[in-house]
Amino acid sequence: MSINTREIKSFFYSQYFSDGIRICIGILLPSLLLMQFDKFDLGLTLSLGALCICVIDTPGPVSHKRNAMAAGNLCLFLVAAITGFARLNVFTLGFEITFFAFLFSMFTVYGNRAASVGTSSLLIMIFMMDKALAAPEVLGYSATILAGGVWYMIFSLLFFGIRPYRAAQQALGENVTDIARFLRIKADFYLSDTDIDENYRKLVSKQIQVSQHQDAVRELLFKSRIMARESTAPSRILVLTFVDLVDIYEQIMATHYDYSHIREKFKDTGVLTEIARIIHNMADELDDIAYIILSNTRRRHLTDFNIELEKLKIKIDSIGKNNQETSNLVLKKVLVNLRSLSEGINNIYKYYSSKAAESLNEPKGDVEYSAFVTHQDFAPHIFFDNFTLASGAFKHALRVALVCLIGFITAKLVSLGHHSYWVLLTIIVILKPGFSLSKQRNYQRLIGTIGGGVIGIAILTFIPNVTVQFIFLVIFMMGAYSFQRLNYVVSVIFMTPYVLILFKFLGVGLLNVAQERILDTVIGSTIALVASYLIFPTWEFEQIQEALRDVLVANINYLVTIAESISGKMISITSYKLARKEVYVKSANLSAAFERMTSEPKSKQRKIKDVHKFVVLNHILSSYIATIASAQSKKEIPVAHPEAMKLIKKSITVLNDTGQKLHAENIEFNIGKIPPVNPEAQKPVPQPEDALMKEQLGFINKISYDIAKITDSILIEP
Could you tell me which residue ranges the Integral membrane protein YccS N-terminal domain spans (predicted)? Predict the structure, then answer.
């Protein structure tokens, strides 16, 4: 029960809920204020402009929000005015819908925020389609819509200006929660009743969320002028927490072993269950840290893992003593990883102690944080370079344009009432570049609309009190915008009754509107689903090789960076962490592509088992490299150790050969010559760590060959 309470509280502290409140106030306020002066129609028009611009108000640096919303407002006015005149003739309106659907869908080539500007523009086009305005009224009405958009932009920027660090806190807290869940999945590998293959599926799926939230935090921390240029206590705490959190994630990645082997080897000792229990407890501690960050509170670190780990050490030592035939070396390595995790957790707790802010220094090292964020190029040639059927964005734009034209014609012929724009609205919301995303959004939209329609009708039928209905409207509106990025089904379930109650207040018949909305949603969903399958479809198997190549190149660069460090070459912290970041990002991209592939029709899931095996092998390879990286950072590997260098060179060569089959460029590496051994020098006494390190490098070599084999299998034409 306490866990559920904590989760509920965390939601109310999260960016999802604060987004819902901000958007709700930004849209409602003009209508509520002007209603007091008998100017409700004017207020509704201002709210319509705010409704369109709020689509652009997604998480990210304030400067990006400002620039995007400014561009969105310009498009808002132009599209509203053009549509207002175009709707005077059905043929010019049909042409405009087709052209704008293509143009604004092409904005995806400039990234997600530019795509949201395109969506905002399409929304106002759809809302203006059925607005009965005489030609002289069009520009004035469009200017009022623009005023609503500008109002929302100013309101949103003021909202963030009051609490400049809050968005970064929320994104960071959610990232900690993701890593805690990732850690729990890793813990389950040590339990004998866990299916290893199924657990890998969960792991790579969770890795997608971890990577997405890490990217969001990087943008907020390192692209924000306040974070980058001001050295305040809150900014230092956020940056230090994130740096340590990424290091903790690396330690979690490094805790990878042959789980089938260690289960068989230590199944009767009970030590694996103990390891899993401690890891789960550490995940609980990370959840506590997430709550501390989200709630902006200070709490005492309650669990002392030193005691737990000391008990585990005694148990591991006893295994080595009692059974001379069973080496406990791998368990000792697990113990080292757990100590590192515990240390990272303790460090973060210290940042949130009552007097920590006063004594915190700048993050150590020569890390150039600006290098960790991507910079979007808005050059015009990028737009026109994508005018080819080889471009997924171009095919998506053509599909949206054709489907919107079909939807427009269908709405004019079939629609029940005066809200035929709902057909086009459904199409715009559902159609995504890939089939699997369109299919998922289609299902969610239908379920949400039907479920929300039932709730809305029930409230309006059995609760006649207007004040109570308005309270429900506000609650549903906040719920719709709070869950739009968290759970789309729930968002639509909230949105439908909010729309029905709104139309009731506007004097539109209840049952007619509900029936019309559900029918138009079904029509739009059907058109969108059929079109995503038949009109310029984009299947993951057509693009999966690019994702395979990218992740392979990232892993090679990661391994080369570690190899150069072992060879004695000076590697900057920035270079190392950039290589690590690329592995995490590209691995998440590959995992996401694989998940989308599993949602496509069976006939389009080509080599799905081989691709899944590649995904798992890539994760294992990344984990083994992270293990070597961790050991190297602690100076556990002798510089230029001949055995180590030989194995690493062999692995890089195999991976390079595999990459070339995927059309990747050969990655040059210079790890120098191994210094000749002086015969007179005293040979170092072999250490247990040397054996384990050799074993880890051997695993990397084996996995490299396994990746080569599975890549050959994927590339063979069926």
Answer: 72-340
